[in-house]
Amino acid sequence: MVENQSQDLELRRVYLFAGLDDVQLDQVKRGLRVLRLAESERLFDHGQAAERFFLVRSGQIKLYRLSTGGAEKVIEIIQPGQTFAEAVVFMERQVYPVSAQALSPTELWSFENRAFLALLRQSSDTCFRLMADMSMRLHAHINEINGLTLQNATLRLVGFLVRQMAEHGSADGRLELPAAKNVIASRLSVQPETLSRILHNLSADGVITVQGRMIQIHDLERLQGYLD
Amino acid sequence: MVENQSQDLELRRVYLFAGLDDVQLDQVKRGLRVLRLAESERLFDHGQAAERFFLVRSGQIKLYRLSTGGAEKVIEIIQPGQTFAEAVVFMERQVYPVSAQALSPTELWSFENRAFLALLRQSSDTCFRLMADMSMRLHAHINEINGLTLQNATLRLVGFLVRQMAEHGSADGRLELPAAKNVIASRLSVQPETLSRILHNLSADGVITVQGRMIQIHDLERLQGYLD
Predict the structure, then answer these.
(1) Span A133-153, mean pLDDT?
(2) Long-range pairs for B70-78 at CB < 8 Å and ≥24 separation?
(3) Biggest alpha carbon distance in chain A?
(4) Separation between Cα atoms, residue B211 and residue A27, nearest integer Å
(5) Percentage helix, strand, coil, to 5, in chain B?
(6) Which of A89, A126, A190, B19 makes a 20 to 30 Å CA pair with B187?
(7) Does the pLDDT of residue B151 top 80, yes or no?
(8) Other C-beta atoms within 10 Å of A52: how many?
């Protein structure tokens, strides 16, 4: 009973099942199968008929394609808690678009495409609950990506400034940028608007002052602290 | 006619409309309204009945909530090309969960919830196409988030190593980590497994050799190069 409850909790963490009621979750559980793969074991091949989708519980699954020359292109590494091959459920042509192989000993739960599709066809409310959840997740991801991109760009710029300072800075903390800002942005693989935003943030924090290409570093230690 | 075609292209870049056929897209376009907001102009308030969702074409929209004390919590900044309030379409209670305000002069296209919902109810195939697209996007986002997280953690660790080297390293490039790896990981806000993975990657690149807490830096310049 307790085990059942913890299984329900684990299933409801999967975005596809998060909005299901108890009866619907029971339907999903009836088709659930536990799979254990050894390291390097293949789960399915590209082009094979797709009847099931999967949740990784432990280990890792590599999704990949082979080129006509036989070269392998890794599409994705699936980590514990993530599902894969579930988009196929919604497609007309139910074949796996990639091959799947275990990178380490891996435990999976697999679910029947047909049963899940039947459940969605039963009620458009279930479809709509799922779509609402998916579109909120898409927004949350975009937020996370934006935040990480800004962090990344900040780390790159601060690393660059600290190095330039060590090599070319004056004793009183003045540093002339070695190129125009858009050139620096391009060299650091940062969007020019992002670079401006970061310089603005660092100025607002009182760590630097910017005048054209001239940067006055007020507090090198705090600037370096951004790298921690 | 040309304008019509470019409008169609722009609409099909929106994930909600990407899989629609021409007839369905025409239905969406019939309810389309163009809106222009001045800087600071409010679009809707939290709790207001939601009849439309939006695509930002230029400018920025801030989504926010006010606390009971009146403090503003920014939930999201919506950039050009992004939609917002579309999750409400799929919800039973059609009210805006946040307030929306233009951060700069902003052009929007707005769409009718009712018309879009009717379109989805007409055919479960359309729902399924949308869900397939959404679940592939969710996977792509997770990939991007994983890649950015790894980059971010690499930048943090390299920044840390370069600074430690300048302060405590020996002339022949040896550096003893000042604490156990899991402590360093925590200080750099990096998962311990991620830290191990990065040390492994840097070793595989021939930039460093790791023996317990002892790091031998073979090529300081290449190590610093990761910060560019």
Answers:
(1) 91
(2) B76/A139, B76/A143, B77/A146, B77/B103
(3) 73
(4) 52
(5) 45, 25, 30
(6) A190
(7) yes
(8) 24
How far is the C-alpha of B94 from the C-alpha of B50, rounded, in Å?
5
CA distance A98 to chain B (A): 13
B76 contacts on A by Cβ (under 8 Å): 139, 143
Report pLDDT digits (tens) over A88-113.
999 988 999 999 999 999 999 999 99
A149: nearest CA partner in chain B: B148
How close, in Å, is residue B208 to chain A by CA atoms?
A: 19
For residue A1, give how far its alpha carbon lies from the nearest alpha carbon of chain B (Å). 32
CB contact at 8 A, A92 and B141:
no
- Tell me the mean pLDDT in the region B199-207: 94
Q: How far B130 CA lies from chain A's nearest CA (Å)?
A: 8
Find the CB nearest A227 among B125, B159, B228. Answer: B159
The phi-psi region of residue B47 (left if phi > 0; otherwise alpha if psi is between -120 and 50; otherwise beta) is: left
Q: Does A38 touch chain B (CB under 8 A)?
A: no
Q: Over 60: is that where the pLDDT of B1 sits?
A: no
B64 touching A, CB under 8 A?
Answer: no
ipTM over 0.90: no
Q: Distance between CA atoms of A19 and A12, rounded to whole angstroms? A: 8
DSSP B57: E
Place of tokens 């695509």: B55
Mean pLDDT of chain A: 92
Identify the structural domains of chain B with CATH numbers, from first to last: 2-134 (2.60.120.10), 145-225 (1.10.10.10)
Closest partner residue to A76 among B88, B121, B143, by Cβ?
Answer: B143
Query: pLDDT for A167-218, tens place per residue?
Result: 888 888 999 999 999 999 999 989 998 999 999 999 999 999 999 999 999 9
Where are the extended beta strands (E) located within A59-145? 61-66, 72-78, 83-84, 99-102, 106-112
Alpha-carbon distance A130 to B144, whole Å? 22
**Is B186 within 8 Å of chain A by CB?**
no
Q: How many Cα atoms are found within 13 Å in the side-chain-facing hemisphere of A133?
A: 16
pLDDT in tens, B107-116: 999 999 999 9
| Block residue for tokens 């040309």 | B2
